[in-house]
Amino acid sequence: MELGSFVKNKRYLAGWYGYFALADTPTPFLRLDDSLRRRLRMCLWKQWKLPKIKLKRLISLEVPKEKAYEWGNSRKKWRISNSPVLNKTLNLKSWRNKKLKSLVYRYNHFRHT
Questions:
Q1: DSSP class of residue 113?
Q2: What is the pTM of this model?
C-alpha cells in the first residue's frame, strides 16, 4: 500500500480518536478498528491484482504454498479480506510494522493520560 494513503489515514484517525476519546465507549473503537483493518486488507488484495502476484505476496507472508495457491486464485475481494489466511498474516502486528497504530491503542493511551 502506498505510504501517502497511510499518512492520510493516520492524520484522519488521529483527529477522530482525539475528538471521540472523551467518551467512555471502547466498543465502537474495537469495531471500527476491526473494520478498518479489514478494509485495508481488501485494498492490498486489490492492489496485488494478478493471481501470480497474490501467490508471491502470500508466500512472502509465510503462508504455505498450498494455501497460498488456493487463496491466491480467488477474486472475491471482500470475502477474502476476512479469510483466516489474511487475518493471520496481515494482523495487528503487521500493520504496526507499517506504522499504522490501532484505534484501541490510541483510545487507551488518551484515556490514561
A1: -
A2: 0.74
